[in-house]
Predict the structure.
Amino acid sequence: TVSALATTPDQRTLLLARIGAGVSLWSLPDGQLLRSLDAPPPLQIGVDEPPHPEGAAVLSPSPDSTSVVVGSEARLLRYDLPTGHLQHEFPLGKAPVRALTWTPDGRAFAVAYSFDPVVRLLAADDDHVVQAFRVDTEATALHFAPDDSLWIGDATGAVSGFAPDGSARGAAFRSGRSPVRSVGTLAGWVVSLTDDGVLSGWDPLGQRPPWSIATGAAYGAFAIAPDRPLVFVGSGHDVRLYQPTASVPLDSLPHPTAAVRAIAAAAGLVVSGDAIGRVAFWHLAAATAPTTAP
């Protein structure tokens, strides 16, 4: 199963995590295998815990595309992308990593753990906590906007914004009735997807009315195009393309093998990964059938 996908900000590399198979790096846009990340160091566990395959749940490349922070269960690991070598392992968390996002300057990253309302900003080069942000309930999704605002989605379906000094950016926006699965920014909108498939947008400046779309994509995957105003939502056997405020999808791309589990986007490209570990590369400008990677 594909457990996570991400593209580097320079649009040149895809990171692919499979359960039990580690994290591999692929060139974009041609989809050629480059290398794999080193296996994480052994972890001591209780004798009563049954063995099970691990898979990275969260992949967060740095803004300069030279490193990635990997969240795997309760572990946080930072890797060097040009070599695939482990650079640093952060202290073990008390619960699984739920979400990660880097500050725009690349000096720190925010991490949310399951069942925890506190989001911690960690220095990228060591273990100290730079800052902490608190929401009312479990934090489930994170995104740093280019203006250094931090957007946090929580288990109630609310999205809260924080300024760099930690102050709240107005009242929280409620995007649905179930936990926020993903959050990002697009064309001045804060965009979120909840577990019940509600795609929502909110203008933090208050100049445009909010909007919501019931996509039907329960527990869907989510990505935002870096080069055009498109949101990708994956569920079942297709990837749907939405424009902000539009009530129906602009297009639907049928995934050729199994149910979609993860999506990532690059310039002119969207990549989907499925429940049997297959990956499809969609070249949007060409509007052709996808190529697949084994």
In short: The first strand starts at residue 2 and ends at 7.
